[in-house]
Design brief:
Order of helices and strands: EHEHEHEEEHEHEHHEHEE
Structural class: alpha/beta
Helix content: 25-40%
Strand order of the largest sheet: 1-2-3-4-7-8-9
Oligomer: single chain
Shape: globular
Distance between the termini: 7 Å
Length: 267
Amino acid sequence: MLVDYHTHHYRCGHAGGNLEDYVEAAIHAGLAEIGLSDHSPIYHLGDNPHPLPGTAMSQQEFPAYLREMQDVRDRFAGSIAVRLGVESDYVLGWEDHYRGLWRQYPLDYVIGSVHWLGKWSIFSPELPPGRTPEDIYEEYLITTQAAARSRAYDILGHLDCLKTRGHIPDLSITPRLEETVRVIASTGVAIELNTSGWRKGLGEPYPREELLAVCCHYGVPVTLGSDAHSPQHVAAGFPEAVELLERVGYTSIARFEGRQRFELPLR
């Protein structure tokens, strides 16, 4: 029985569907659990509580999101396990902020994702002025290590997402990348096999097979996430994902409840 812990909904401004639409899609897909994990508010871009309406919910909206998740979980009890989550940014130097923030709420898990290097989005087609792919990649990996060490997160999101816009200059297992995996392993945080890379035309998920194999080698726990932005994408690519996980040596995936990790067999 599989889980999908990475889903987005209307509140983030660039996804469609209500929370219950995703739960119903998960039931239809035969999942054991569905995680609700919309983008958290953005905090590091100044005092505006809603600086990028098409990217994430407003800071004032989070309590309503939590209440709605709890209501949906209770309404579907007995049909499927609904887990309460959030995909949180991690920004270098903001460890205390995010660690303290998510401890306030009764969440089942928090996905920590590096979407920003300072005020530069990794999804921008152009690099910041004066920067090179090499130093951007170095900063991305250092930031990923800091996210793992922060202990603010249960799962690290889409581990090599910097490749989306072609900003990774070397897709081999470099010494810094292997060091990053070792840091992740030392903290006990899980990663996700995020299947959206296949839907985005990259020809591979996040992380790519070679990197996923290194994670397995170092004993990094893994879970599954579709990164669905519409209900039809719930569990998308999961048969291929299970084959990939088994091919690199994984035999189980992580599930979460009350921010505690448990293991589910892949088969």
